[in-house]
Every structure is written in structure tokens, then in C-alpha cells.
Amino acid sequence: MKDLVVLILVIMILFFIWNGRQGKTSTYAAGDVNLDAPVPPMIVQAIIEKVQSMKPDMAPIDTLFVNIQPDGSYTSRVLFFDTKHFLGTQYDVNAKVNTDGSVDILKIGDSATVDPTVGYKPDVYQPWTDVVKNLDAQFQGALKGYKNQPPQPNLTNISTAYNQGMIVNQTNLQTRS
User: Fold this and answer.
1) For FRET with 133, which of 20, 84, 121, 171 sits at 20 to 30 Å CA-CA?
2) How many other C-beta atoms are found inside a 10 Å radius of the C-beta of residue 18?
3) Among residues 25, 21, 85, 35, which one has the least CA distance to residue 57?
4) 54 closest CA partner among 101, 100, 106, 99
């Protein structure tokens, strides 16, 4: 049984060594590009990462399209979220992916003009001491106004209210009750 396990391990090791030594390298020319083939997700990811390395405030939202060109470069349109100004920005990107996986951005530009004054405006806060002073002034004004008001007439002080001029006539008081 031991011999069988050792034999299987030796066969596996030889198999992996033999397959690892077959160096398959591939190159392609611009004429070898199949324009109808789908673009691999790794290439899309590499292009987006390169744009993010150039513009770190951008977070990708959606990839509208990525098309391969006859010369082997890629044209794409990607929607990004600008985390600095809190707005969406759409970029047209022309990129070349090298055989080692590195990406060269040939051209990048906005597909629409951006007005940075329209985005999110940060709040402007007042110091807490100003807020407390404002509240105190409002409370003091309300208390002062409340203290200066004459007492309201009711059925228990009819004669006093009429004598002090709180009511204009007797009928007015009766309609309030």
C-alpha cells in the first residue's frame, strides 16, 4: 500500500514538472484581433484601476462599453462617482493593454462637461456658543412678551375684566365663554 502511494506521488510530481517546462508563449499582431469577441473582464478591470490610479477621487459606478479597436487598443466609456464633489462623471478612455498586463492610457476625457459648482455643498456650522446665545435671546423675548400681557378674561373675573378694560363690552366676554 505504501509503495502505491509513493508511486502515485512520484507520477504526480513528474506530471507537474513535465507540464511546467512546456513554455507556451503567445504573441499577437494587430491583424489577429477579433473585433467581435467579448472583452475579458480582467482587461476592463485593469483599465478602470489605471483610471482610478490617475484620479483617486473617482469610484466606478458603471461600465457603459469597452470596445477593442483594430490596432489592439480599447475605447471605453465608464461612469464614475466623484467622491470629492459628490457628482457623477462619465469618461471616454482610450487605453492600450500591454502583454505584461500593464495599461497605458492613450487619451482620457469627459464625455460631458462638468460644472463643479452644482455638486454637493458642505454644511456651514455656527459655533455652539452662538447657538446658545440665539436660543437664550428667543426665550427671553418670549418670557418678556408673556409677562407684559394682560390677564385673559374668563367667567370668574368678568367684572374685573370689564372694569380694567380687558374687554370692550359685556357681550364680547359672553361670546368668548
Assistant:
1) 121
2) 9
3) 85
4) 106
pLDDT (tens, 9 = 90+) of the chain, 177 residues, equals: 888 888 898 888 888 777 765 555 545 454 556 677 788 888 899 999 999 999 999 999 998 899 988 888 999 999 999 888 888 888 999 999 888 878 999 999 887 766 667 767 777 888 899 989 988 888 887 777 666 666 666 667 777 766 766 655 555 545 554
Grid coordinates representing 30 are 494587430
d(CA 3, CA 10): 10
User: Rounded to 5 degrees, what angle do the CA atoms 119, 50, 116 make?
Assistant: 15
